[in-house]
Amino acid sequence: MTPTTRADCVELDRTDPLAAFREEFVLPEGVVYLDGNSLGALPRATPGRVADMIEREWGRDLIASWNTAGWWDKPRTLGAKIAPLVGADPDEVVVGDGTSTNLFKALVAALRMSDRDIVLGESGNFPTDLYVTEGAARLTGAVQRRVDPDGPELAAALATGDVAVLLLSHVDYRSGTLRDLPAITRMAHEHGALVVWDLCHSVGAVPIELSRSGADFAVGCTYKYLNAGPGAPAFLYAARRHHAVADQPLSGWHGHANPFDFAPEYEPAPGVSRFLSGSQPLVADAALEASLDVWAKADMAQVRVKSLAMTDLFLRITTGEEPGRRPPLRAVGRRPMVGDGWAGLESVTPLDHAHRGSQVALLQPEEGAGYPIVRALIERGVIGDFRAPDVMRFGFTPLYLRYVDVYDAATALVDVVETGEWRQERFARRAQVT
Amino acid sequence: MTPTTRADCVELDRTDPLAAFREEFVLPEGVVYLDGNSLGALPRATPGRVADMIEREWGRDLIASWNTAGWWDKPRTLGAKIAPLVGADPDEVVVGDGTSTNLFKALVAALRMSDRDIVLGESGNFPTDLYVTEGAARLTGAVQRRVDPDGPELAAALATGDVAVLLLSHVDYRSGTLRDLPAITRMAHEHGALVVWDLCHSVGAVPIELSRSGADFAVGCTYKYLNAGPGAPAFLYAARRHHAVADQPLSGWHGHANPFDFAPEYEPAPGVSRFLSGSQPLVADAALEASLDVWAKADMAQVRVKSLAMTDLFLRITTGEEPGRRPPLRAVGRRPMVGDGWAGLESVTPLDHAHRGSQVALLQPEEGAGYPIVRALIERGVIGDFRAPDVMRFGFTPLYLRYVDVYDAATALVDVVETGEWRQERFARRAQVT
């Protein structure tokens, strides 16, 4: 069914196979939360799990918990719980540190496996990917090159044959464009390049098949679609075939083959544990564990079906486009104008399903309109966010959003734009961050 | 008063100016916890503070908390709370990542400030310091050299004039030896070397004066004496005079001068924020904040007085030595024998106050005795730990230990050794980790 009315959405929610998951999350009253692509909502089990970790594991059992509560192995046991979400084997993923740090480890390890010296990245990637590449390249003598990965330049840049490592975001943080991970990985390998995937905006949002695609390395965060809490520990995937040779630079004692020998020289652990460095924040790990236990019950194929249905619905109401049919206006080189869509809104997110993650990015053609529109929507209880220079971002999280939420949010957005409500001066004043 | 009986200790506790702090911590019934140098005890305020952070800041306010709850600035506001504990200005310390990662940043930044290429470290330093130095040296083309920092080799190694960076632990993790931070810093500077101090085993244990000593960089953990929870975020200190030039390799977006410009090129922030990389685990930060609020009320001079009185007492009962008088047996080249001390125990920790941190490390001269003695003591409710090859470690935390606790622990240890209780076979069986 293609929903067109709110009643249609009520009916879709009634038969939604994922409907029960909503009860697993805490959601503020009167809010439609479309920013789970920035910070996932709180799982209902998290406060209790964290309290138990703090009061029993830490407060009562103290250092004994390094053994009895499995603290020492958390980077591996949590990694094993993330593995099915990224299509990896349980012993190919470890949890720890932040995305930036893991990216640095993966990039340097990959560069050391190649006799070439170019790191190919995307011009529009999330800044930390650009900056960390800059840092890793400087230290290793490599050179950063950037292309638009959604155009023909990617193939051309790989075809030069001098690319050591390709670093791409699986889903673009701004536009929500989903890249063809298997095809790009194959193309990179054909040209002798290794691939590091940044999964921050795709893990928990779309099905991922790292092993089957032959991906080399991947990193990702857990605080967006995975609901592990602000700044929660990140993860790193290394294909098993690279474990014996991967040589990462942050050689700390948790990555040692025999950490409790306290040996004077570093000897990397045989498996993916060699990517670990030091102790990890176990209070934060407890929150991650609680959220991964929710994800263990979710079927990613169902998540994807609902995600696409929700973004279709949102796009249809806000832009008047018929999603799934054709590329967005901007991509076909046409200047958008008010009247192009129902409310003058244009989608930056691809309309075709194969290239869409689980977020929708919209433009309103007037300069400077994005920010106040988002603020005006927030005042109505619809939380999205804004990314410079002009993008309004809306994330869709099938585990805790209903079709009626999407309908209500989309119609509120149209109303805010059509009535000119967003033009009130107070909406233009910038908050410090968001 | 030099306490010699349990009644003396009861009296000392009655007049202890720090006595009230014990109520601020959760301590398991029937346990004397002498492992706060490994994992600090749980502050009573922590569970509530973390629950509030999770349920209100994350669960209810969601992304708005990046502004309203000060999430974005946590690395700086928490750094400012650590600053007085290390003798730094509030804007010279940031919190984030782990000790190993911060060590890597500080080492590479220091190496880049020098035209020399030797990193001088300690042969017996905690392994991660050795391994991270190895990793940083390989990437930068530097060379690691190691000496015993408590012997004459340190001065000789610095005098060669080719040392770029000296990396030392302020307190040795095994022996508890305290190094003279101001004097060593001065000596290093006289020879043109920069100094990176590892404060893991000294912060919260002894007063520290980084600024006044002219220290260049320092890193430390917060989960030992600072009670922030297992694996809690670490901190990094950079002297203000280095802020404009320090160039660290993990250039992520949180270290950018204008992170919300999403600029394509990296430009480091003007202050110590340039040492930040990516998002930090805010759930763990909340636990750190709760513990630092306890520390804000503590007078480090009082902490030091009580710490020395407690380690004196413990040493007197367990080794029969008169602490504060002379160096330990091993240091004067004499082979210890049963009968040397009351229970045949020898101190590896210096007896003179100037060289003692807040822990005591003991040896029992029989090979392999250390581990089962520690296990037998744990069965009696006295928790210390064991470090290969043969050291029994006991940490003293003046905020939550009483003199009677120290008396009871010391007499229990003497009893376990004298009665031969530890020789029971079950104590020799190794647990997976400690």
TrEMBL record, chains A, B:
GO BP terms, alphabetized: anthranilate metabolic process; L-kynurenine catabolic process; L-tryptophan catabolic process to kynurenine; NAD+ biosynthetic process; quinolinate biosynthetic process
N6-(pyridoxal phosphate)lysine modifications at: 224
Gene3D superfamilies: Aspartate Aminotransferase, domain 1, Type I PLP-dependent aspartate aminotransferase-like (Major domain)
UniProt xrefs under Pfam families: Aminotran_5, KYNU_C
Pathway the protein takes part in: Cofactor biosynthesis; NAD(+) biosynthesis; quinolinate from L-kynurenine: step 2/3; Amino-acid degradation; L-kynurenine degradation; L-alanine and anthranilate from L-kynurenine: step 1/1
Transmembrane regions listed in the UniProt entry: none
Residues annotated to bind pyridoxal 5'-phosphate: 99-100, 126-129, 198, 201, 223, 253
GO cellular component: cytoplasm
UniProt cofactor(s): pyridoxal 5'-phosphate
Stored SUPFAM superfamilies: PLP-dependent transferases (SSF53383)
Keywords annotated in UniProt: Hydrolase, Pyridine nucleotide biosynthesis, Pyridoxal phosphate
Annotated InterPro entries: Aminotrans_V_dom, Kynureninase, PyrdxlP-dep_Trfase, PyrdxlP-dep_Trfase_major, PyrdxlP-dep_Trfase_small
GO molecular function: kynureninase activity; pyridoxal phosphate binding
Top EC class of this enzyme: hydrolase
NCBIfam families cross-referenced by the UniProt entry: kynureninase (TIGR01814)
Described purpose of this protein according to its UniProt entry: Catalyzes the cleavage of L-kynurenine (L-Kyn) and L-3-hydroxykynurenine (L-3OHKyn) into anthranilic acid (AA) and 3-hydroxyanthranilic acid (3-OHAA), respectively.
Annotated PANTHER family: KYNURENINASE
Quaternary structure annotation from Swiss-Prot or TrEMBL: Homodimer.
Family: Belongs to the kynureninase family.
Protein name: Kynureninase
Organism: Nocardiopsis aegyptia
Originating gene: kynU
